[in-house]
Structures are given as structure tokens and as C-alpha cells.
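Researcher: Here's the sequence for the chain we discussed earlier.
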Amino acid sequence: MAYFTGTAATMADLKTAIENAAVAAGWTLTSGILSKGGCFFQLVANQVTNPYLQLNGGTSQSGATLNGQPTNNVRIASGTAQPIVFPVTYEVHTFNNPDEVYCVINYNSDFYQTLAFGKSDIPGIGGTGAW
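Model: Thanks. This is the structure I predict for it:
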């Protein structure tokens, strides 16, 4: 397990920190898409209005295009009840066998959100095993 921590001034900074941690753990970053073991993930940062960092999963990539993208994506997002105030503190944990990446952010002193992705090691799960 590898562990990375720091602060991010924007969602784009957080995206870069997660991508760098994943690459250090053996993931490949090509045209903005992380891949490893047949799994493909793309992080999309938005800093306008309500900031968010969205994780999209796919079955392959064509250049900068993620293929087989599901309609339900995962986000770290600034909500109306408790908007995220930057900078945020992040902790990224990466694992091998199975390949997993976990990110936890802390903001506004006592609020937390998580974002995680990886490849399942459950035998016979089907598909690419991406979660």
C-alpha cells in the first residue's frame, strides 16, 4: 500500500493528485484516462458554480474517449447545504493485487467525502471487474 497526502486548491489539483498516485501504483495515464488490468477510468474536474470531481468508468478507450461509459457516475461534489471551501486536505491510498485507489478529502474542518475505484479480485465476477 502506498499513501499520499496533501492539499488541493481546486478540483483540478485534486484530480492531478489522484492521477499521480495511481500512476505511481502502476496505472497508465494516457490522454486523461487511467487504465490497468483491462479497467479504464477517467476523472473530470469542474470548478465552475458547484465544484465537483467526477469518476467515469469504461471498458476501453479510443484516444481521449472512454468507451462503454455508464450513465451513473460517481462524484465528489460541493453541496448546497455544506459547500466545499478550498483548500481541501486529501489522502490517497493505493493498493496492488487487487488494484484499488481510494481518496478521502477533508474540508470545512469536519466534513469528508470519498472517491474510490479499482478492479475486483472476486473470481468469475464477469466483465472487466472494474468497480
